[in-house]
Amino acid sequence: FTMVLRPDLPPVLSFRVGFLASLTLARILNEMFGIDVRVKWPNDLLVDECKICGMLSELEAEADRVTFINIGIGLNANNNPPPIEPAATSLKAILGRRVSQKEILSRYLESFEAQMQATAYDDVIKRWKQFAVTLNRHVRVVTTREVFTGKAVDVDDTGALILKCSDGSLKTIRYGDCFHQTR
């Protein structure tokens, strides 16, 4: 599903809405099904290292205000991930039964809306880190221009991943596809 949001935020803080979206869904799935859902920087949800959900965000802004943010959420609920995607799973595969997508959506939207109205995104990075599986892992991050490897040591207040490179230097990465490495 896709949410179209119109938060009263400056563009520089818009990333917080995406972090709040993933954090909220991880928490809801944990509560509803008793499974340990974790977040992977910047926008995936994992269960036992297998992807159960992906999110994409798009925004439009004018001057100093966000006009809208679209957040697309692809949750593997009652499907069977194809064998060509060995690192994917679904709620059905984990629980051994079908789940109510309407109930998940209802609980999610209710919780997300309440947090948006309460501006709960002010401390979202701190709360997101409690569910993060990426931190303290060796990762490879692919951007449109470069590939970075190193240890993910933090996510800063702007949502950027802080990577410790093999030479000891720190690299701030604002966007990209993150892949956990096995060592």
Could you please describe the fold and organization of this structure?
- With about 180 residues, this protein is of the alpha+beta class.
- The chain folds into 2 domains: about 1-130, Bira Bifunctional Protein, Domain 2 (BirA Bifunctional Protein, domain 2); about 135-180, SH3 type barrels (Roll), CATH 2.30.30.100.
- The chain has 4 helices and 10 strands.
- Helix 1 crosses helix 3 (about 100-115).
- The chain starts with a strand and ends with a strand.
- The model has no long low-confidence stretch (mean pLDDT about 95).
| CATH homologous superfamily assignment of the largest domain | Bira Bifunctional Protein, Domain 2
Shape: globular
Percent of sequence in beta strands:
25-35%
How many DSSP E strands?
Answer: 10
- Overall tally of structural domains: 2
CATH class of the largest domain: Alpha Beta
What's the end-to-end separation, in Å? Answer: 36 Å
Which structural class do you get from the secondary structure elements? Answer: alpha+beta
Question: Order of strands across the widest beta sheet?
Answer: 1-5-4-3-2
Shape-level CATH architecture of the largest domain: 2-Layer Sandwich
Helix content: 25-40%
Number of helices: 4
Question: Might you state the CATH topology name of the largest domain?
Answer: BirA Bifunctional Protein, domain 2
The helix/strand series, from N terminus to C terminus, equals: EHEEEEHHHEEEEE
Give a short account of the largest sheet: 5 strands, antiparallel
